[in-house]
N-acetyltransferase
Amino acid sequence: MNIRDNRAENRFETEVDQITAWLDYAKSSESLAILHTDVPEALAGRGVGSALVSHACDVARAEGLKLVSHCSFATAWMKKNMK
């Protein structure tokens, strides 16, 4: 899945079957906050949201940023997948 950083909109985006899904974030010099994950119903159950959250986690790790989640989906994903 190709995920791009749309810095103008402060979100990570991906397109599947010509439908865009995204994860809104706020980034500072110390943290990356996940604000909201939006996966249209047509893409539900296909791992798109998980891929977006995983990507955000990878970016935070690579940039040495503290990861903060204000999104219930992202919080649940991180509890299940990060140790």
